[in-house]
Amino acid sequence: MVEKKLWYEKYFIDPLNKYAANRLIKSITGGINGGVNVLLIGSFLTIISIIISAIPGLNQTSFALKLADLKVLVFGIVGMFFAYSIASSNAKYNKIDKQSVGFFAVIAYFIFMRPEFVVDAAGTTYFSVEFSRFGANGIFVAIVSGLWAGEVSNFFKKRGWVINAEGLPDIIKTWFDYLIAGTAVTLGAWAFTGLLNIDLHTLFSSLLTPVVHVFTSFGGSLLINALSPLLFYFGIHPLSVLTPVLAMYMTATAQNAELLAHGLAPTIANGFVINNLATTFLLDLGGAGSTLGLNFALLFSKHKYQRKLGQLAIFPSLLNINEPLIFGLPIMLNPIFFLPFFVVPIINYVITYFVLFLGWIKIPSSMALSMHIPAFINAFILSEDPKAVILVIMLVILDGLIWVPFLRLHARQVEAREK
Amino acid sequence: MNILLVCQGGMSSSFVVKKIKEAFKNKGECVHIISKASMEIVDYIDETDIVLVAPNVLYEIEDIRETCTQHGITPVILPMELYGRMDGEALRVFIINSQDGGNDG
């Protein structure tokens, strides 16, 4: 059976699927998703410090300050974990040893960071590198380190021409393969920084700053917020396409978090960027396409099958997982639902942008980026502003109301079909 | 029988797996079924008999199929609406049928 492809399949879905299935893109996506799990530790520390700051007498004590330092430390070294996890996800796709490749990436990452050895008067050697490079600011260097380590190792491993002596035990062969691969990764990285004297971090900063500006502008972010539901509507998981773009938003979050750590209030005047990853996560109401409002509308529906789906899907929805709604209702490729699914995230974004622009709510600036925390709680963690929770509740109610007429239309269609 | 269900991040599939497990249990059958992110297939395929694929990772079905074929397994794509509605019983029947009549994955 050969089906003729529709125009949007040929020109939209196929190229995007091809892009998302690209090994390098998949490695970045998988690696960033894996690395984000490390941010969970920092997120938990954030929750604790929010609780402590609410307790009179504990605020500003040395205990609270030490805890704040711990938070800065944990968030400050995530770049290294991204290097490791991007390399190991690349190794998984290449089907080679992920741990070795991950270690090579960490070595490459340290080399690309260009640390200096400083000897003080007493003769003690210190390892010195600008701290912010190790955090989310180093995400691009982490991506390069991860892919560099992964692909170079793959090249040497797959060739297998390194040691082909007959009668050599397999384990020795493997050992040599990785020795050669690891050395190549290391020397290659060193040639770049040591011999060619290129500072990747500075290079990326200057090259990507204008790009980051475009994406974090009102329009750029609007585009991304509109693209996400569009992709999901056609059955392409938005994260499989957009994760590399999220890396750009992450650098903006890192800059905001740094300003916050210096004690500045999160306002535009103080140089905080509205559209950073924390804001994107705050807008992730029930999953890509902001379907939490829809889920509540289903719960209150007059139609039994809609209520049933709503009950099934509410727990995943609270954890920002909306596959049950996308595939179960279904929203995907369903003409009735295109409009609300496409429009709701845009409305949420525009309202939130102006609320933040007017300074009614603190600009979300926390590195506590975790995808699967209920939207109402996440809003507070990301912005440390209780008013953000009220905003999210209002958006969810508004979203639900927008969905109601479309659900009624759908129910009428389903009933007509059953008759 | 060991079953592996893969999706984008291993999150939505974990809810579906729970329902499938319940359905098998209700029929008094014992299966071992786990959910993982699609990139983790290589880590689990050695101890897997059946690979189920969620509709949210169809973009990389070619890669998944290649990995599975190397291990003599034909991946089974789960129908979108059964997956979305987390209909454990219907999925149980679907899985069994896919194994009986030479699957179409």
Automatic annotation (TrEMBL), chain A:
The keyword Cell membrane applies. It is found in: Cell membrane. The chain crosses the membrane at residues 36-58, 70-87, 99-115, 135-156, 176-198, 204-224, 231-252, 272-300, 337-358, 388-409. InterPro entries: PTS_EIIC, PTS_EIIC_3, PTS_IIC_cello, PTS_Sugar-EIIC/EIIB. Keywords: Cell membrane, Membrane, Sugar transport, Transmembrane, Transmembrane helix, Transport. The phosphoenolpyruvate-dependent sugar phosphotransferase system (PTS), a major carbohydrate active -transport system, catalyzes the phosphorylation of incoming sugar substrates concomitant with their translocation across the cell membrane. GO terms for molecular function: protein-N(PI)-phosphohistidine-sugar phosphotransferase activity. This is Permease IIC component. PANTHER family: PTHR33989, PTS SYSTEM N,N'-DIACETYLCHITOBIOSE-SPECIFIC EIIC COMPONENT (PTHR33989:SF4). It is a multi-pass membrane protein. GO terms for biological process: N,N'-diacetylchitobiose import; phosphoenolpyruvate-dependent sugar phosphotransferase system. Residues 8-406 form the PTS EIIC type-3 domain. Pfam families: PTS_EIIC. It comes from Pelolinea submarina. PROSITE patterns: PTS_EIIC_TYPE_3. GO terms for cellular component: plasma membrane. The keyword rRNA processing does not apply.
TrEMBL record, chain B:
GO terms for molecular function: kinase activity; protein-N(PI)-phosphohistidine-sugar phosphotransferase activity. Residues 1-105 form the PTS EIIB type-3 domain. The keyword Mitochondrion does not apply. The modification Phosphocysteine is found at C7. The keyword Transferase applies. Keywords: Kinase, Phosphoprotein, Phosphotransferase system, Sugar transport, Transferase, Transport. This is PTS system cellobiose-specific IIB component. The lineage of its organism: Bacteria, Bacillati, Chloroflexota, Anaerolineae, Anaerolineales.
